[in-house]
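Review form for a predicted model. The reviewer records the input and the model, then writes brief findings.
Reviewer: anonymous (R2)
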Amino acid sequence: MIKKSARRRAAGKPLVLDTSGYLYAGGKIDRSVEGSPTVGQMYAEYFIPRTLKSPFPIVMIHGGSQTGTNFTGTPDGREGWAQYFLRRGHAVYVVDQVARGRSAHFSLSQGAVQAGNLARTEQRFVAPERFNLWPQAKRHTQWPGAGKPGDAAFEAFYATQFPSLESYPRQQEINRDAIIALLEKIGPTVLLVHSQSGAFAWPVADERPKLVKAIVAVEPNGPPVYETDFKGTPDWFVDVGPRKTSGLGMVPLRYDPPLKSGEELSFMRQDKPDTPDLVRGWLQAEPARRLPNLARVPILILVAEASYHAAYDHVTAAYLAQAGVPNTFVRLPDIGIRGNGHMMMLEKNSDEIAGVIEGWLKNTLKKKRKVARKNR
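Model under review:
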């Protein structure tokens, strides 16, 4: 239980809401599964502030092994990004991915799930500096606690972990469909995605560009074409997993010129990395096809100093730019925010990072409104 004094420090002034609640989007009863459960549904909890300053809600979508709790609090008892944006006049929807958390599913009705992985949690999320599996890992300083079992903040975080569906294509297909169903219920939104859910944002915006006013991609799933695993010094990086058929994921995107029946995208690997501490990324072979629908959506890609994503998120930004998709790529240390890992929304300086996002959103949405007025 959090002491009253800690709650006061976390909350500041009372958070005043006009309303809050939850809804489900997408899904259907599947009679081919034993017991005929509902499958494909997505839970979304919503919070509408009393004073609404932004016309577009922010839909926050967590990453792998996580649930929406990533955004509604931190392991050391502070307010999360949901409260940060609510206090600044944004309506917020926090989802649990399909087949995850309160987007419940019966047994394995939507596919096999991954087992727990304590070692990966420590290595990737809370204490990369102890394992040094990628060049930037030793710079990690912002986790709120010792980052290992027995520490209160670690135990609070590890208790939130939840298995992902094993099938990478299945994750992307069913979450794409459920997010689109959610947006069709609530209208145009800002998508704030993290890690695994980065692969959902591209097909959602590709299918419904008018419903996605901006994408905030916090270390989105990547890099393009092949996943990267980490070996430690001296070689550091290795490509793993199946080839991503659409470059950015495993579900189709609308390229221009379109792919013919049976045709595949052609990729090429960089001859050398941009710097020795980065991966050799994969891009399209030239001439590159365009992604015209994604080009209509403002995109921010945010990467932390010490995360494993620090080695490759620049390739995602470059892949989008090559496909004619403008994007803003920000390395947090370049703007003076140091020491963060992949779970930056839970770390000690999480509010400072949220402030960067809010500043970008204010400027971006203001520009979109001006353009819309000119085009009337």
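Findings: Residues 4-374 form a domain with the Rossmann fold fold (CATH 3.40.50.1820).
Further findings: The chain is about 25% helix and 20% strand.
Recommendation: see findings above.
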